[in-house]
Amino acid sequence: MRVSLFTIAAVLATAASATFSLQELDLRRNRQCLKASNSLQEDATLATFTQLIDHTDPTKGCFEQRYWHNAKIWGGPGYPIFMVNVGEADAEEYAWHLINQRLAYLYGEKLQGAVVLFEHRYYGKPQPLKTMTAETLQYHTVPQSLQDNKRFAQTVKFGFDNCGSANVDKSPWVLIGGSYAGALPAWQSVITPGVFAAHHASSAVIHAIGDFWQFWTPVEQAMPRNFSEGVKLVIKKVDSILSRGDMQEIAAIKKEFGYVSEFYNHMEKGVNNGTLNKGLNEADVVLDVAGNMFANLTQRYWKDFCTDTPCDWEHDKEIEFPSSPTNLGTARSWA
């Protein structure tokens, strides 16, 4: 989906809850407040923020919350800060948000904004408390996370800002997230209106559904027919072998997809004949392996397929895509 960067500029300028209007700000570049960036490492810097364990009771203490920032294109005071809360994951795995070709970075590039990657409490490290118990997990809530976002935006002291002018009272902030983390900006706009200049809620969840298989329906519908039919045949075949095949058949399909014995062991124990080994947490293993199998399959169609880092697919040279998705239901909209 292509997103117009001018649209974001308009959102920042007209957001009803915004404290700032870009037209009212002096957007002349203030280099005196910028610290020099001389290396790639400084372009994506790891730091920690002293966060409250319980925002309703500061006496409960604090913990160090991790964040990363890329301010090499920040224009200085009055220029936007694009904050990405990654949600339920170790934020270090999402450091690619800070580099080119990612949504937040493209916003920053267009509007001379800094990009900040913020780690959700209780995910990644360090943890708010050393042990995980019913008592210590009571601070693992959406309201606490929303207050984390607010307090960070209001009080963080960035290493790239000499003048203390990068907080929400002097520069407009945009909160960005996807899926569960996409719901956070939507909730934030209601719970703490006026703190962030704009809220970007991508694929924000509205219902908690354990097995949301319908997610893939528009993906299948938007695929070229020759490709999607092939994928469905492969999935059907793999499902059949893993659910009803013997050890030799499972070993053969493992070899077909190029997986080592660890793959076979997990799939055989986790799926074959309905046998589950709870001690190995097979559900997650099977999902991960299934995802890798799909990636392996798509590599046969795209030469430049990447899973860990973003890359440009020259899909027009590999497979013919329709100019626009077809056969889509009315429940979804595509742009």
Automatic annotation (TrEMBL):
Residues 1-18 form the signal peptide. It comes from the Eukaryota. The keyword Magnesium does not apply. The keyword Glycoprotein applies. Keywords: Glycoprotein, Hydrolase, Protease, Signal. Belongs to the peptidase S28 family. This is Serine peptidase, putative. The lineage of its organism: Eukaryota, Fungi, Dikarya, Ascomycota, Pezizomycotina.
